């Protein structure tokens, strides 16, 4: 029998048993630590920061090679509680992961999130320009992504060891993004809140197209800032998340027995 420690998919703050859980999926190259700072201020929910392999506390684990492999691993490793509402949140790459994980939960006959909140990512069914950033060298990859989206601290770009470390997770996620193919399915029945920055490369039209992927209510909101608007002004994002959590809790209370 193996005695190895199972992977720890979820990092969280202090438990809030009465609050719905909100599962947070990181942006490309990001880790669960990005969301742990929200635990103090997001009183309406209990943040569950999803830690993907190949970064942070799971740095020594091999990164997953494709969206299908990642979703299969999430189905095995992340099991939201049955009988209680929960919410998914993802930013950028994390939006795509949250969306595909939601579809996989539906296909598996398991509970789906009561609300899906996506941020800074075009609706997945839209045509995409081909790119091969995951084939770039470490320095070129980080420089290119920093020029496109920002979000990479200058101290990381200034240190060769940190560049090599950051490039590993970023390359793994770009490989998933750049080899991803959207497969048409029936629309979700999950309410969706779509967030974005007014100065981001992701356009208002690309955000609005998420309406085509669910039969439930869709709300689209944009805030001042670029791709990482939520780092500069987390307050509006936390309020949007709190609203989604409150709606999920209200639907649970009003559901027929």
Helix content bin: 25-40%
What are the segments in which pLDDT stays under 50 over at least 5 consecutive residues? 1-5
Name the CATH superfamily assignment.
Alpha/Beta hydrolase fold, catalytic domain
Number of helices: 9
Number of domains: 1
State the strand order across the main sheet.
1-3-2-4-5-6-7
Number of strands: 7
What number is the mean pLDDT? Answer: 91
Report the C-alpha radius of gyration, rounded. 18 Å
- SSE ordering: EEHEHEHEHHHEHEHH
% residues in beta strands? 5-15%
Q: What class would the helix/strand composition place it in?
A: alpha/beta
Morphology call = globular
- So what's the CATH class? Alpha Beta
* C-alpha termini separation: 43 Å
Major sheet: 7 strands, mixed
In CATH terms, what is the fold-level topology? Rossmann fold
Summarize this, please?
The protein is α/β, with parallel strands linked by helices.
Task: Write structural notes for this entry.
This protein is α/β, with parallel strands linked by helices. The protein has a single domain, classed as Alpha/Beta hydrolase fold, catalytic domain (Rossmann fold), CATH 3.40.50.1820. The chain is 37% helix and 14% strand. The chain has helices at 33-36, 67-77, 93-107, 138-149, 154-157, 160-179, 204-208, 229-232, 234-254; strands at 10-12, 21-25, 46-50, 86-91, 115-119, 192-197, 218-223. Strands 1-3-2-4-5-6-7 form a seven-stranded mixed β-sheet, with helices on both faces. Helix 2 crosses helix 3. The longest helix is centred in the last third of the chain and has 21 residues, at 234-254. The chain is globular and about 55 Å long. The protein starts with 9 loop residues before the first strand and ends with a helix.
């Amino acid at each position: 029998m193996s005695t190895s420690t199972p992977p720890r998919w979820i990092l969280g703050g202090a438990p809030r048993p009465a609050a719905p859980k909100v599962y947070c999926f990181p942006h490309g190259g990001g880790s669960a630590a990005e969301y742990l700072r929200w635990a103090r201020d997001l009183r309406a929910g209990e943040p569950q920061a999803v830690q993907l392999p190949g970064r942070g506390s799971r740095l020594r684990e091999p990164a997953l090679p494709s969206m299908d492999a990642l979703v299969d691993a999430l189905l095995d490793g992340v099991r939201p509680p049955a009988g209680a509402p929960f919410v998914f949140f993802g930013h950028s790459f994390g939006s795509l992961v949250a969306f595909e994980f939601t579809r996989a939960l539906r296909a598996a006959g398991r509970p789906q999130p009561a609300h899906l909140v996506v941020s800074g990512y075009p609706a997945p069914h839209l045509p995409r320009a081909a790119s091969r950033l995951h084939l770039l060298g470490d320095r070129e990859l980080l420089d290119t992504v920093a020029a496109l989206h920002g979000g990479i601290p200058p101290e990381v770009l200034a240190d060769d060891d940190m560049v090599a470390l950051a490039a590993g997770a970023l390359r793994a996620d770009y490989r998933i993004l750049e080899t991803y193919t959207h497969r048409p399915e029936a629309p979700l029945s999950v309410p969706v809140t779509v967030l974005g920055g007014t100065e981001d490369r992701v356009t208002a039209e690309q955000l609005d197209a998420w309406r085509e992927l669910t039969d439930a209510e869709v709300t689209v909101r944009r805030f001042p800032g670029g791709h990482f608007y939520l780092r500069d002004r987390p307050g509006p994002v936390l309020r949007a998340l709190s609203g989604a959590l409150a709606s999920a809790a209200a639907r649970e209370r009003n559901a027929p027995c």
